[in-house]
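Milestone M4 deliverable, item 7.
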Amino acid sequence: MKKKQIIRILILVLIIIALIIIGQVLFNKYMKYKLKKILVKNDSTNYELIEKYNNQEENVKLRNNILISENDNECIWIDGLNGKRVIMDKKSKIAIVTENDEELSVHSLNYTYLKDYFENSNRKFRYLGKEEKFYKFKFEDKKTGVITIFYLNRDNRNY
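Output delivered:
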């Protein structure tokens, strides 16, 4: 009689664990769909991207047609509206300023780039939750181990 009760309890525990795992997978798929829809709908002109690779971290921010890219060695600031760019080497403290370059345009995170992350089977998606005013999620490249973390502004939910 006790063996039957133990077996029933084990089966019940296994069913609960399986339901939790299935729930997490379904929630991750739902969040991936929701975040992709938000990015496509808003054309992603207000985002922050942090990419970590080879023990280095690069931070890219786009706000109102101004792009800032920063890593351990350099900082790049581009203003697409006014056609100005500043590139600074952090170690030597030397900055290069350019103006009115026709190629200085700041574009949104376009759909091709989104497809590369959201529809690429080599990238593992994981929703990391909400942090202040942002949705936080990451992609990990299964082959190279490159981890890319996105912070998506929650105020851009026009869907």
